[in-house]
Amino acid sequence: MVLPAFLLPSPLHLRFNSSVSRNKLRRHVIASAQSHTAPSIQKTESSDVDVVVIGSGIGALTAAADLASKGASVGVLERYLIPGGSSGYFVRDGYTFDAGASMIFGFGERGTTNLLTRALACVGRKQETVADPVQVRYHLPGINIRVHQQYERFLEELIQRFPAEENGIRSFYAECWSVFNSLNAMPLRSLEEPNYLLRVFFAHPLPCLNLLRYIARNAGDIARKHISDKDLLRFIDMECYSWSVVPADLTPMINAGMVFSDRHYGGINYPVGGVGKISQELVRGIEDKPGCWVRYGARVTRVFFEGDRACGVQLANGSVITARAVISNATRWDTFGERGLVESQHVPPSEHRFRERYVKSPSFCSAHIAVRETDLRVSMREDDGMDCHHIMLDDWNELETAHDGKGTLFVSIPTVLDKSIAPEGKHIFHVFTPSWMDEWQGLSKQDYEAKKQSILELMIDRLERTLFPGLKEAIEFAEVGSPRTHRRFLGRVDGSYGPVAKKKLKGLLSMPFNRTDVDGLYCVGDSTFPGQGLNATAFSGFACGHRVAADLGLIETLPKPVDSFLTDLLSKTRLQL
Ligand SMILES: NC(=O)c1ccc[n+]([C@@H]2O[C@H](COP(=O)([O-])OP(=O)(O)OC[C@H]3O[C@@H](n4cnc5c(N)ncnc54)[C@H](O)[C@@H]3O)[C@@H](O)[C@H]2O)c1
Ligand SMILES: CC(C)=CCC/C(C)=C/C=C/C(C)=C/C=C/C(C)=C/C=C/C=C(C)/C=C/C=C(C)/C=C/C=C(\C)CCC=C(C)C
């Protein structure tokens, strides 16, 4: 029987373990580095690692932690001065501001979906957290709802607002629970490692079949099956949009199931001392493992190849690091794009398919504001009903428009939960709204500053009028970031929050996993399955660590030819669907 081309195992993956000698690799890398860059190549024995990781976002650090715990020597290269990427921080006058992420999933104590707790645990670390009793308070046209950690309290509020839709509400969220319960029943590892898939399938057949039912579906279709009220469907759109930046129709059901259930199960938990603590703790754990290190100010400029196989990276200062596997936590566009880390002759056709299916989501315009509690005319105490996270929208037509601070406003006040991150009697307000890079290009310095100031004033006006009387007077200082700021400090193309479906796709089916079609090169983070979110990128980190460990022979797998054949078969079948 002749197999169709897409079922044939890739020769690249069959070749993975073909032992290219380390010294030969290194000679090759240094020779190519010399031909491309200034002669200042610094090469030390310690730079020769099993795995080199580009970037230190949560996806990268989870993969590094997982591999370090399995005995690999891992080197992490971060272009910025601290770890964490979107979950980084900055300090001003005694305030510790979260740079991006602030609503943290994945810190639960139970089940298998608490992937941040697990990432820390695999390198022997633990992070103290404060439980948030309300995930978010929505202030939407005609809808004012709190998503309580207690599921029934949330349902009660929603049903009180939409009494005719009680059954629909209950059955939509019940489907979300069914997805979550299936995920939470099994260890979460790489979906491109057949040995794991077989084991997990035989151990948990019903949850696996249930996940297969949902993996190609989007939340909008499921919502419409149960709900017909237009305003309630708009609410479900906002429930999705607030973390996926696309409406329910474009939001994969697996992700919706995770988010809409885990907030009531593991809950939303704020790390004491700020979100930056997560990556700091991960780095400590990684550096405690033999042969593992993290370097800052280390911008990778390109991935090195021997033939068709990635075998290391070159840094902006000209130095090179050789490795048996390379993991990129840069976005897909920054890895494979025009001025990306992989030179064009090595960019595989599958990356063009990715670009046909996914586009960059907008970035954010964000204000980090230091606020005096005494000047606010509203109680900031959690026991008086103040919530940490708010989402505001004045007009449904503005949901997807993001100009001039009129669109959706996200507000996070972490000092409601953790007083240690600001001086006594002071609060941190992180206020942001979606914004596109092209609105910020080509401005003079003066116009750029004026635009930031005007958006800040618009956002503060809206908050002062509706939620926080006295806010204007109470501000000590504010720093405003634009998509340009996100691009500069996070190294993310156009400051994008991540990839989103260009058109309606089949759920998560076409989202790339961690292997790429380049031998020896893997991706991790929100450009890979299952997408944006710290817990989601932690999943991609574990999945990536697992697949790389299998390829490096650190964990038990099926015999190599069988593994390669089945892995390829799964990937090609998935993409044909
Ligand atoms: N929960 C929230 O409130 C919230 C808010 C904002 C963002 N997020 C999430 O945070 C997640 C981001 O995680 P991630 O793992 O994808 O990565 P990331 O973007 O956070 O981190 C990538 C890291 O790689 C570094 N980097 C990029 N190019 C490099 C190069 N050439 N050389 C060296 N270093 C380089 C960057 O400096 C950055 O530290 C996103 O999914 C986003 O959804 C969550
Ligand atoms: C065996 C066979 C054959 C088969 C089987 C199948 C299977 C097993 C499957 C599986 C699957 C899986 C594992 C999956 C997984 C998934 C996951 C993990 C997912 C996750 C997700 C998560 C998420 C999405 C999250 C997100 C979050 C976010 C994004 C957040 C955000 C937030 C924000 C932005 C905030 C805002 C607000 C304010 C501030 C107010």
From TrEMBL:
Pfam families, alphabetized: Amino_oxidase
Major localization listed first in the record, in broad terms: plastid
Annotated Amine oxidase domain residues: 61-459
Cofactor: FAD; NADP(+); NAD(+)
Membrane topology: Peripheral membrane protein
Cellular component GO terms, alphabetical: chloroplast membrane
Gene3D superfamilies for the chain: FAD/NAD(P)-binding domain
EC class name: isomerase
GO biological process, any: carotenoid biosynthetic process
Recorded family membership: Belongs to the carotenoid/retinoid oxidoreductase family. CrtISO subfamily.
Name of the protein in question: prolycopene isomerase
Species name: Gracilariopsis chorda
Lineage: Eukaryota, Rhodophyta, Florideophyceae, Rhodymeniophycidae, Gracilariales
